[in-house]
Amino acid sequence: MLQSFRLDAAGVREILKGQEVRELVDGLASEVAANVRALVPGGTAIEVRGYTTDRGAATVVVADAQAMAWQAQHGILTRAAGFAGLEVKAWQR
Question: I want to staple 80 with a disulfide (CB 3.0 to 4.6 A). Which of 36, 50, 63, 87 is the partner?
Answer without folding.
Answer: 36
